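To whoever is on call:

I kicked off a structure prediction for a single chain this morning and the downstream step that reads the tokens threw a length-mismatch warning. I double-checked the sequence; it's 159 residues and nothing unusual in it as far as I can see. Pasting both halves so you can look.
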Amino acid sequence: MQHSKMQTLPRQDNLPLLLEQYKLFVEMMDRTSQRRLATNRFFLSILTILTALQKAAPELISLNDSLNIPIYLLVWLLCAIWFFQLKAYQQLNGGKFKVIGELEEYFDYAPYNREWHFLQEGKSRKSYWMLSELERFLPIVFALFIGLLLILEVFEINP
């Protein structure tokens, strides 16, 4: 059953329940953001380690040339997974913000809706750059960097 908006005002005795639901959703949104940050740390760490091991210390891991291409492909695959996970977190938090916004309609003050108003609903980069859009550049930049390393290796260019 889908609800686009709560249709009726809650009874006065339901306001404490709404407040608890509101607090729960704010906490869930924060936890989702924390998981997103942990995801970023994980992918940055694993991709940095793979790249460093391959480029900076090949003698330590004795990579032969036949393993280089699969490692590049693995890094690109991890970048793609990272990119789509960030998109999923953005969508998940977007849904949570909508629910929080609906719940705020029943309170005297709506801090998240007010903040979003001050940030011009993310429509103006002069007032707000959406973090979720900025952080999605990380896997793209990493994938481009790995592509550059691959090109340098294929054409045997030593910078």
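Update from on-call: the warning came from a stale cache, not from the record. Cleared it. Sanity check on the structure: Residues 15-55 form the longest helix (41 residues).
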